[in-house]
Amino acid sequence: MTRAPSRILAIGGNTFTELVRQKVFYFLLLFALIVIGNSAFLAKFSFQEEFQMLKDVALGAMSVFLSLLAILATANLLPRDLEDRTIFTILSKPVPRHEYLLGKLLGVFFLLLLSTLVMGVLFLGVLLLREQAALAETRASLAGSPQELAAALAEVSKGAFGWDLIPAMAILLVKAFLLSSLTMLVSTFATSGIFAILVAASAYFIGHLQVTAREYWMSGIGIHWWTRIFTAVVALIFPDLQAFNLTDDIVAGVALPMALFWQTVALGGVYIAVYYVVACFLFQNREL
Amino acid sequence: MTGFLNPFRSLAALLMVAVAGALLLPWQIELQNLSKKSGFRTAVLDLSLREQIGQSGFLAALSGFRSPLAAFLWIEAHSAWEKTEWGRMNALFNTVTTLQPHSLLYWDIAAWHMAWNASAAALQDRKQQSEVLRERARRQYIDLGRDFLERGIRNNPDSYLLHERLGIVFRDKVEDHSAAADEFAKAASLSGCPDYIKRFAAYEAAKVPGREKEAYDRLRALYNEGEKMRASTLVSLIRELEEKLQIPAAERIKAPAPSKPAPAQPQSRN
After folding, report:
1. Do residues B264 and A145 touch, judged by C-beta distance below 8 A?
2. HSE-CB for A168 with a 13 A CA cutoff
3. From the CA of A67, how many Å to the nearest CA of chain B?
4. With the CA atoms of B210, B213, B216 and B221 taken in that order, what torsion angle do they form, in degrees rounded to the nearest 10?
5. Where are the alpha helices (DSSP H) in chain A?
6. What are the φ/ψ torsions at residue B191 (nearest 5 degrees)?
7. A285 vs A240, which has greater pLDDT?
8. Is ipTM beyond 0.95?
9. Are residues A191 and B67, on separate chains, in Cβ contact within 8 Å?
10. What's the domain range around A119?
11. How many domains does chain A have?
């Protein structure tokens, strides 16, 4: 009899392979096209503008692709297993349902991690290439004045890569993990894959407004009791997704304190754990 | 999917999520405060922005796509520049800087377009026959550039760059040397500021009647920092002020007349 970790890893590996077979990685070509095409288009701007916009667009595209991938890949896992009847084969073996869900979730997490790594390498590679081109141009144009050259080269490098880009991408990944576990929770009671996608996508948008609802609810001034109940429900049920939107300010040059980074990651971890536990609770007694 | 869920179990699940949400509330609020204190999540996305960027743009901004949206609008502003649509550029710059209030680059370049390019174009606008009105338009564009920098400073109080740029606008466009000296001095007091800005503060103060002594003290302090700071302009200006302020011979600088040129100073974009 195999142990729990190996069972979970086997289900996770299988889920990952299934997703790869569905050619989900094709979206990386689109990402490459956006980053490289964008970079070529931006060549007419100053190098500072070019770097700024390359970072804006690449991280924005990463955020879109990861969020979409997290929701779409997770929403269809349970419906497809039910349709293929593979879920009966798996659950008829000594595999507890919570292990099955964890394995499925880990498979998607691995896909998201790999996608982030590939997109990150691609983005940083293009940024590095553009930086080298800007450095070469600067060297050529200021060859006669070494004093100015040193300052100009430092300015170019300062505008390109910053170490804060790494935690920025890590936060995007945590947000994608969160969305994936939220979608998993929805799919445990959803009646179809489309329903799960719709609910998760709505939760995505409402999650970004959660902070507004929370502030409105907690201020409690001059609002009707039913508005107060509605905003309280939104604030309590939905995750605060704005907490994970730090990349907008990071690309603008705001320094990310490590305390903020780790607290954001930890908050994401807690949300993931909560959604997983509730998903297990719902899935445990579900008639299949 | 044909599964069936016990309604009580569903309600219990919803309650579990709500309880977790309630337990996480203090943490969320603390994290929000920490974010704001660190300069994150401070962009004001209100109804005026909704009017500027439309419903879908506003939704995108709220959904964590502020920076890509700002980049797209910036590209649009660049196209407007190529067509010399200054009014449209100003509106787009306002939107971009609202979306990305911590990007120094956006404030800086928006101000430069208004205070330099648009103001110069207004002065050469042959469609406007009246020279008085052309001059008025020129001043209005300079004011718009100034306004971008002042708002940028309010959003980024720790950055020397925007103070420096505002100093340059006061020096070269408004020709208010006293205000320029103050802005350069503010820039010089912030971390990361290059040495040449400290010299700029003193040079500008020296041009203001009544501030010569202050300028002299600043220049002497820079001079005393060592050879690196003794640019030819600085030494010449000290000598000039020593004459003007009748500084006693024993207190005057003893350095020989400078022979090497002053270190290069970055130029503004014009």
Report:
1. yes
2. 30
3. 11
4. -130
5. 4-21, 27-41, 47-75, 77-84, 86-92, 97-141, 146-159, 165-187, 193-219, 225-237, 247-251, 258-284
6. -70, 145
7. A240
8. no
9. no
10. 4-284
11. 1
Query: What residue spans define the domains of chain B?
Result: 174-263
Question: Does the structure show a pLDDT above 70 at B118?
Answer: yes
Measure the CA–CA gap between A238 and B210, rounded to whole angstroms. Answer: 63
- Which residue carries 């760059």 as its tokens? B161
pTM: 0.83
Residue A288: list chain B partners with CB under 8 A.
3
CB A120 within 8 A of CB A112: no
Percent above pLDDT 90 for chain A: 37
- Are A42 and A49 contacting, i.e. CB atoms less than 8 angstroms apart? yes
pLDDT tens-digit series, residues A232-280: 788 888 999 989 988 888 888 888 999 999 999 999 999 999 999 999 9
Chain A positions in Cβ-Cβ contact with residue B5 (cut-off 8 Å): 189, 282, 286
Distance from CA of A85 to the nearest CA of B (A): 11
pLDDT in tens, B227-261: 777 778 888 888 888 787 777 777 777 755 555 55
Among chain B residues, CA nearest to A58: B68
Number of C-beta neighbours around residue A220 at 10 A: 11
